[in-house]
Please model this.
Amino acid sequence: MRHLLDTTDLTLSEIDEMVSLALDIIENGDKYAKACEGKKLATLFFEPSTRTRLSFEAAMLELGGSVLGFSEASSSSTAKGESVGDTIRTVSNYADIIAMRHPHEGAAFVAKRKTLVPLINAGDGGHAHPTQTLTDLLTIFREKGSFNNLTIGLCGDLKFGRTVHSLIKAMSRYSNIRFVLISPEELKVPEYIIKDVLLPSGAEYTEAKTIEEAIPELDILYMTRVQRERFATEEEYLKHRDAFILDLEKLKGAKEYLTIMHPLPRVNEIAEEVDSDKRAKYFEQALNGKYIRMALILTLLNWRNEPDNNLPESYIECGKCSNPHCISNYQSLKNLCKISETDGTKRCIYCENEIL
Model:
């Protein structure tokens, strides 16, 4: 049975097929109106969500299916102490496919091992958000016509931003991709993304400290929120904040065909004056999320009898994961790690944190 925990679960040809299906849905929506008639999607959201949850629900309803689930952990048996594995095993008796969001990194991996139906990771902590990445890929293709030969600026919280991690994993697989990483020192891309993704892929990357120095060379600017809570002091946050707010003044040096993206929700990192600029595509990006999730639901239901192409690796027992957000530190799970093929590093099987 096929699942989607990370964009790396899909081959490039499978991504291309899914994008093509989404484009056909956009052009010929009526022919898909009953494609999931009699099917049920369970949306299990253990943390708040607006776009992701509603776009999944809209996607299934427009395919003629139905939706069940919950939108916060307090309304589920998790509040009584039920494990993620037990919740998923139970709900998979009632639904044909599951989309799950959870605040703890690695929760989707645990769920995959228990589910009886296809599972979609709708975000697990700061780890991965593959359906947002598919949304981003559809947006990029609609705007640029290709996934190759692009310079992509990633700006803001690159350390904890799961959308950034997933997008780097996806785009680094294409040809002639260059990343410009724009962030304060405190929020730089995690080392494992550099070591396990960027370096093996051969994708070029540079770092920048301000939007202004990076923007002239960019084809895509992917904005994320610089989070106040990630800084040790208010003074440190205020020192960095304005450098990572996009406004019309900063856009003066940008290419005419720049595409501005943002996974949303926005706080203050993109000034509202930018919304009317023809290069701003983040609200179209949100709409693309519905179409690509329609394509994903159809694809996984069609793949239900296919073997999982991400088969279990060789795991070894290891010490407790030091990542405070890892699911293994909240539920009774065996501490296991996998060995990195690139440098022999031990990484937690749940959250990919390095085990020392």
